[in-house]
From TrEMBL:
Span of the signal peptide: 1-19
Entry protein name: Cystatin domain-containing protein
Alphabetical UniProt keywords: Signal
Lineage: Eukaryota, Metazoa, Spiralia, Lophotrochozoa, Platyhelminthes
């Protein structure tokens, strides 16, 4: 949980996202998607929500300031060899990460 609080501050500083509450989702640039902060955020979310898959590549992503920070990513994932997966090869996954504005709320992850 502590790692995500640091992500919020670091991502705003390092990525330079400029959104107002009335703006819609903004696309993240390739540099944003390849940043260490975003990669760590995505890996942590995958470990929590889908432990049998590992990150291969982040294809695209958006960010939206909406009662916190809401990220949506399109990922290329692969099953971990340690899991008995019925599907082998790369897989496209959609990941949503919501970092609530309240410091008492936990991050919410959804993968589809």
């Amino acid at each position: 949980m502590r790692i995500f609080k640091g992500f919020i501050f670091a991502i705003f500083l390092l990525i330079g996202i400029r959104c107002s509450p009335v703006d819609g989702p903004r696309s993240l640039t390739r540099d944003n998607l390849e940043s260490q902060e975003i990669r760590e955020l995505v890996k942590s979310a995958l470990r929590s929500s889908s432990p049998c898959f590992e990150l291969v590549n982040i294809k695209s992503g958006t960010v939206h300031i909406e009662n916190g920070i809401k990220y949506q990513f399109q990922l290329l994932t692969a099953p971990k060899p340690s899991c008995n997966a019925t599907y082998y090869g790369n897989h496209i996954s959609n990941l949503t990460v919501h970092l609530p504005a309240s410091r008492f709320a936990r991050p919410v992850f959804a993968i589809g």
